[in-house]
């Protein structure tokens, strides 16, 4: 940008000197043109020399050329009365951009001396005393320093803003990388496909509110005829939340035993080692048995499971025990839901009810939605749910698992 400005100034002076008739001042066109061409040629030559000798590329050399150019033009056009005198202010601005406040003030000081000397010896200038004292010192020179102060201050402010913007970009890039890592971790925790269990039709819906969600659903083959099911919601987001999701999944798997209450207590002890005072997990884990048409489960502070009866009625099991990762020695009790042919068991996270209830509980809204889709295949329930909670109401992760027994 500064290079373009310098060439624009040279072109402006050259064109103006030859095309504009100045009545109040004497503009010596030929000396001005020669000065512009000579200094421009030297500037261009220094640019080529910089490719071989790095020291010739220093900004101070270019600034010296700017001062020489403007001084020559002012000298050949009546000194301080020159129509080109304001170009001194442009040179101060360039110095401020290149070197900051100190550089701009140094440039203004140098131009003060140069301006006085030039005005004193310029052709056609009257007696030096009145011109120097009245015009240079009072009418023009103070504004060189004012321009220097303003430009230097603005340059300092711009530099601070640029550093802040760079820091924000770096932070955003780091956050993006963190989100990508968290997304990979989380995707690795979710099932690649829905398992096949004779006598049970299964459908799952999962929509994170952001790049990385805090919900988990998982299927664990206990036996060929039994399937373990987990639906959980962690309190953290980003990489910490994704790691907590992973911890929850493997804590439940590693703690498996036939006594589900003892299993959840063991999982709680494992999760306590990776949670803080601000993090916890709500989870529901159960085993569905198609032969007995029952669902044995433990609810650790999670949303209550719902059952959509074959005739369309929706019932809700309200029992809940403490969330995982809150306190040691938490007690859990195994619950049991008896299903009838055609019944559908629905497990979900609070993102579903929050979205349906506009930030409130939303239990009744979910009950109404399930009643309205009871006659549809459960593979379509997820689409109906997402249609009911379109943005801007979808502000949290949404997870729903439906299991229909034959």
Task: Characterize this entry briefly.
Helix content is 51%, strand content 16%. The chain is α+β, with helices and mostly antiparallel strands and 406 residues long. The chain has two domains: 2-165, no CATH class; 192-405, Phosphatase 2c, domain 1 (4-Layer Sandwich), CATH 3.60.40.10.
How would you describe this protein?
The chain is an alpha+beta fold and 406 residues long. It folds into two domains: 2-165, no CATH class; 192-405, 4-Layer Sandwich (Phosphatase 2c, domain 1), CATH 3.60.40.10. The chain is 51% helix and 16% strand. The protein contains ten helices and ten strands. It has helices at 2-19, 29-49, 59-75, 87-121, 128-189, 238-254, 260-272, 350-356, 363-373, 381-388, and strands at residues 200-207, 215-223, 226-234, 281-289, 294-300, 306-308, 314-316, 335-338, 344-348, 398-405. The protein has a five-stranded antiparallel beta sheet. A five-stranded antiparallel beta sheet has the order 2-3-4-5-8, covered by helices on one side. Helix 2 runs antiparallel to helix 3 (59-75). It is rod-shaped. The two termini are 75 Å apart. The relative contact order is 0.08. The model has no long low-confidence stretch (mean pLDDT 83).
